[in-house]
Amino acid sequence: MGTLREDFPPPIRPFDRASLLAEDLVFRPSEFPELARFRLEHEQVSLLEAPLTVHRRYALTDTEDPDLQLRLDLRLCLEGPAGAFESLYRFTESFQRPIPREALKTVKDLGDLAFAWSWDEPLASEVVAFVRHNVMVAIRGADAGARPERVARDIDARLRTLPLTDRYDSEPGPLSALEAPKSVGRGARLTLAANRDSEERWFFLTTAGSVNRDPKDPELWYYRAGLASG
After folding, report:
1. Closest Cα to residue 200, out of 32, 88, 45, 64?
2. CA nearest neighbour of 43 among 21, 65, 28, 63
3. Per the omega criterion (within 30 degrees of 0), is the bond before 66 cis?
């Protein structure tokens, strides 16, 4: 028996030219029927470098049954569907407990490729993960019932209604007017910009050195050069 990548490869079909989500999925539990009575307990947003992905993670609690909790992962892969499938396989490989292959199932009519399984109840869907366009979605439930799969179908239905595009264009931002020096000395500091009075979340990628918040002014970002000048 091979790996999930080998046994369940991405669908062999050409994706439409427009295969990138053109509109951000704004997640609000109240807008999804299966999550209407759930409360958002925690939200975390991060940037993953390989594949380049905006990762949103949510923790949800049932207001009528606090013992019922769900964890939701939304990964928008900026490099296209291939990155979403890579995220799907990596998600299935991220657990310390091996997934019982006899309990693993592919879910029909959910996304472009979908997996579901439970460690304890062979017929249940304790974990559901799927790809739609360039988005990977994963739902984990504290119970071993069918709710994670129903939630997945709710989210997939929303994803199917959102417009698509064939590429992401860069937009001018607060750093567009920054005149960066051609060379930065070892360990030198370069002030970037301040994120004041804005709900935007900024992420920075560097090939050397690091980007940090100023300890005296947390809304101010700066670049610290690495050990090599350049």
Report:
1. 45
2. 28
3. no
